Amino acid sequence: MNIAGFLFLLVTHYFCGRGLLYLFGIEQGKIKTITLSFIMGVAVASFIPFLLQLFYIRINTVSVAVAICITTLLLNIQPLIARKYKPKWTKWTLPLQLYDYPFIILLGFLVILSAWLCFYSPVNVRDTLSGPELLAKYTVNEQTMLNSVFSVDLETTNNYLKPPYLTSLQVVYKLFVMSYGAMWLPVLAISFTTWLYCLLRQSLHGVLAGILLVFFVAIREVYSYTHVILFDYSNMIFFFYGVYFLSKYVSDKKMGTFFFSALSFGIATYTRTETVVLVALLLPLVIYYLNKAQLPKGRIVLNALLFIAIPAFFYFIWMNVYLKFYMPVTFNLGQQVNTHVWEVGRLVDRLELITTQLVFNPSALVGYGYLTYLFMIVAIIDAVRYRRYTDEAKITLYSIFALYIGFAILGYILPWMDVVNTTKRALFKLFPIMLLYFCNSPLLLSWSASLKNWEIPVVKLQAKQVLSKTVSVPRPSTKKKK
Amino acid sequence: MSKKIQLSIVAIIAIVIFFQLPVNKAWLDDVILVDVSLIPAQLDYMDEEYRNQARYKESYQLEMAIKGFFDQTPSVKPLLLLPPTGYFKAKGLNFPIPEPAIFYYFTGIRSVWTNSKMIDSANWVVIPADNQMYIFPIQNRHQLDSFLTIFKPYPPTL
Q: What is the ipTM of this complex?
């Protein structure tokens, strides 16, 4: 393993991501900023070999290093010129208590084990080996993504048609780190787990935050994709950030946050192109909140169009530009799509299949653990007992519903999207959104408050005492003014 | 006892209970602890070739043997006919035969399955017999047809 190359990538990932966050005016706590910078930096790196290929530039260590350095510089030029490079971090720091450590040790152990597995074992997933990894290996050998792989009999696979996210990252990490590539995935997994911990810890008591995150990290299927090289873990992360920053936009009303959400959905589409359909299902929600923000009608239409146009652009650049004009093989999307769209019964069947096979099924319990059931219980109690929702909670609930319907629609439109493999992994997107809901659940918030009160009792002042304290503040007399 | 210590004990109990739930316990015992137990041995075998062999097993050995054969004759440009997995199984070799894309990934050698559109161009074939592998050149169409007839009862599957 080339440690220097890995450090170079880590540093450039951080600065690329940090620059991107600055450009969009995203402000968070220190640890959330650092970890999100790494995540966004990995996303930026995933475009580099692909862009070099679009311009027919040879892909090798020098060209990729130069491109990474230029990108890092370009993304940081504005804060450097404005001399505002010192990031505007909010003052929140991680108030770690003794009871946080059992969870941190456990979570740290799990993510480090995952990083080791990713480092030690070569890629062993058919979908990756027969597509992105194959292309990445010969891109490194032949300095082009349009390489000798296309002279091979590819009748048994269509994985070479998958978006270039994985291929590009594998190329970058093969060139700079090690022949297996792979080490970008632990960067994502460690950063995302840490970021989620900060998110939960900000809203909930440490004991609740810790155990909820353990519920998420210990999902067998999701955990295995923290060290198995495939699209779905990354897709889950970027889709989640799309939802999260959309909910942030509703509270802070900053257009930077809104477009950062759209960009996150765009990157999610870049990892799996069909994600654009799921983003489209969120449009009613976007329009509702744009309308609620009392923007002019024209602005609402424009922003809603831009919101879907950004992910659509990522879809277009791969499907309609690269596949059409660069790939030495023909690809007919029409052949992949269900032509019997009037058979709506299939849609209902698919929905039923997802529900019976992936939710209420013993094998689903093995694969997905207890988080889904925990979410259902909490959501039902919230609905029955509290019946009040923050905007963030509404957005998470709508997103979960839209995804659930969206998976069925995708399976209906794209028959190759089977339940036991593709949809099974697509479901990952639901889980971090469930955690975001937990941060807004009245039930969990009240439990959290009770725990905090028990831990550090708050002295309850009587209303009169508060009033007397307030009155004691000297006020300018009206007589003096006269 | 301080409340923070009490909450720490609650945290530890919560984790213990979490891993007593059947699904989580199975995951911990069958996956996580197994992976952890393998680490000391893995640290002793950091060689990449060893790691590949440990991961890909018999298929990888087959691929490397074929690659070794053709590396000795670099002038040959083979398009290798790979028999179906079912045929290998019938011959007592119980491991999957890679698809052409994956075979190319490991060996850099182009290959075809019996149902390929490129089958007519196949000029070499690998045949298992007596727990051995034999690699033959295909001289003419008649020879190719006879191999295809042998493999016909075993349709290739992923």
A: 0.92
